[in-house]
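Forgive a beginner's question, but would it be possible to get any protein sequence you like and the tokens describing how it folds?
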Amino acid sequence: MPEFKYLLGYPDNITDQVRLLIDEDKLGETLLKKYPLAHTIRTDKTLYAYTVELKNALLKQSQPLSKVIYDDKIKDLHHALGLHTFISRVQGGKHKAKNEIRVASLFKNVPLEFLRMIVVHELAHLREKDHNKAFYKLCLHMEPAYHQFELDMRLYLTHLDLFGKLY
């Protein structure tokens, strides 16, 4: 039986369904039925534009973003899918703060819903630093299907580990 490292903490009824889909060789087919196409946001420039557009629509009063990029090192170094960093610098007599979002490069070739879920997650960190109740409430405010997209993205990562890419 494969270990479902991306599904840790999910109830047995979910992992049992995933195990059945894998045993019947239908996990990929199920994901492709629900999410047939990968998005076209492939460059750092288009990722930045997409993220800023979401931020301006959903979090108008939050701090500006100085950088949004795809990062090849995230999954290996940080065991994460995206990172929000807040950098504070003193330049002259002024205090400058920068917010940066880095998204794991594997999200260059996934459905838009998975990328949106990661971007929404990282944008929520502009207001809430910790993964607490307020953080997830904000994620749901920005993307009502946040939890479903997160589960499906975790199913995709499981498929990626076991069988390889779908897109």
